[in-house]
Structure formats: structure tokens, C-alpha cells
Amino acid sequence: MEDVVNVVKALSAETRLRLLKLLRGREMSSTELQQSLRMPRQTLAYHLHVLQVGGLVTTRQDGRRLMYAGAMPGVADADGRFERFLSRTLDDVN
Predict the structure, then answer these.
(1) For the segment 44-88, what is each residue's pLDDT rounded down to a tens digit?
(2) Are 68 and 57 in contact (CB under 8 A)?
């Protein structure tokens, strides 16, 4: 049950949806994300943390940079309906 709560929380803010849209299909550093969204580093870190807890973002170290990528295992369902819904929703995010 906690996993579901974490996914729903991660998807409940427009800023996090914008982050997921940026990270769909590619990796970005926190600096690139910060520049794209024009938000303070602390705010970005909070939103990325919520997405990580929800299983929607993965990280990997690249030298001194931390790279972020979108991940959909947190929303996978048996027939893929929710994942398709989320993908269409991200298409509509500004």
C-alpha cells in the first residue's frame, strides 16, 4: 500500500509532472533540470526526492554529476492502461 501512496504523491504536483516530461527518454543532470525549470536547487532536490521515493526517477553517478532519468516501473500495471494514461498526461504538460 505504501508503494501506491508514494506513486500517487509523486504524481500529485505539476512541477513533478514537468520533471517527468523532461526526463522521459533521456538523462539530465540536476544543473540541466534546474536551468530548464528555473527553480532553486533546494526545491528541485525536494521534487526529485519525491519522484525517487515513488520509483519514477532513477539516478546514476557520472563523475561528479548525478544524472537523473525517468522510470515507469512504479506505474506499471498488468495491461499497461495506467502507464499509457500517464504518458498521454505528460504529453499535455507545459
Answers:
(1) 999 999 999 988 999 999 999 999 998 876 555 556 677 777 777
(2) yes
Count of C-beta atoms within a 10 Å radius of residue 45: 13
CATH of the domain at 81: 1.10.10.10
Residue 74 makes CB contacts below 8 A (sequence gap 6+) with 3, 6, 7, 10, 54, 55, 56
What pLDDT digit, counting tens, does each position of 25-54 carry? Answer: 899 999 999 999 999 999 999 999 999 998
Within 8 A by CB and 6+ apart from 62, the residues are: 29
Q: If you search the block for the grid coordinates 532536490, which residue do you land on?
A: 45
Domain that holds residue 79: 2-89
| Cβ(47)–Cβ(15) below 8 Å | yes
37 domain-assigned: yes
